[in-house]
């Protein structure tokens, strides 16, 4: 009996060390999972912001086209030139050529614009305008491409491209 007891003296210590090792491995796995989850959360957040900024680019052009139609402009898209431009939510026209200027987050309004008082962001938006004409030289529709690019916190590149077409619904057939 004494021989049996002598052999079990170190068994509790070995069991404790094995249990601590297993707990450490499990804890490290949980930490790795949390770290990966936070990283993916940032990627999804940046993608959502990029998507909304691209949609806003299309809406800016839509607002300009609608304002032209409300003024009863004779030529559909008369104030829109072809090319690549920068614009923010306050823009009444597309006159600023694209220069790869990052958007800034305005701390007062919470909107993205080009105001120098805002916090710099990694998001760069370009709005591209293409006009299409019929055989008679009349502008029939406009293609708008809003592209937002950014560098992700992990170093990767993100991009969202939205495209829409605006047609002259006032045109006479």
Key features of this structure:
single chain, alpha+beta, six-stranded antiparallel beta sheet, 6 strands
Task: Give a short synopsis of this structure.
This protein has 173 residues and is an alpha+beta fold. The chain has helices at 2-8, 11-70; strands at 83-85, 102-105, 112-113, 119-133, 139-151, 157-167. Strands 1, 2, 3, 4, 5 and 6 form a 6-stranded antiparallel sheet that branches.
The unreliable regions are none
In DSSP terms, counting alpha (H) and pi (I) runs of 4 or more, how many helices? 2
Helix content percent band: 25-40%
Strand elements, count: 6
C-alpha termini separation: 108 Å
- Class by alpha and beta content: alpha+beta
Helix/strand order, N-terminal first: HHEEEEEE
Overall pLDDT: 86
Q: Into which percentage range does the β-strand content fall?
A: 25-35%
**Integer-rounded radius of gyration:** 29 Å
The main pleated sheet reads as: 6 strands, antiparallel
What do you see in this structure?
The protein has 173 residues and is α+β, with helices and mostly antiparallel strands. It has one domain. It is built from two helices and six strands. It has helices spanning 2-8, 11-70, and strands at residues 83-85, 102-105, 112-113, 119-133, 139-151, 157-167. Strands 1, 2, 3, 4, 5 and 6 form a six-stranded antiparallel sheet that branches. The model has no long low-confidence stretch (mean pLDDT 86).
List the SSEs and their pairings:
Blueprint (H helix, E strand, L loop, with lengths): L1 H7 L2 H60 L12 E3 L16 E4 L6 E2 L5 E15 L5 E13 L5 E11 L6
Antiparallel strand pairs: 1-4, 2-3, 2-4, 4-5, 5-6
């Amino acid at each position: 009996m004494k021989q049996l007891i002598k052999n079990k003296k170190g068994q509790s210590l070995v069991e404790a060390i094995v249990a601590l090792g297993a707990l450490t491995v499990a804890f490290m796995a949980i930490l790795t999972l949390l770290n990966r989850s936070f990283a993916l959360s940032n990627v999804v957040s940046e993608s959502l912001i990029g998507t909304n900024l691209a949609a806003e680019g299309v809406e800016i052009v839509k607002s300009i086209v609608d304002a032209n139609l409300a003024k009863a402009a004779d030529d559909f898209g008369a104030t829109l030139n072809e090319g690549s431009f920068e614009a923010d939510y306050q823009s009444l026209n597309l006159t600023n050529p694209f220069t790869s200027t990052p958007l800034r987050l305005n701390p007062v309004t919470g909107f993205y614009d080009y105001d120098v008082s805002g916090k710099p962001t990694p998001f760069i938006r370009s709005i591209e305008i293409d006009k299409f004409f019929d055989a008679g030289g009349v502008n029939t529709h406009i293609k708008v491409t809003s592209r937002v690019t950014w560098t992700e916190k992990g170093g990767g590149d993100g991009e969202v491209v939205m495209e829409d077409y605006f047609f002259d619904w006032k045109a006479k057939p």
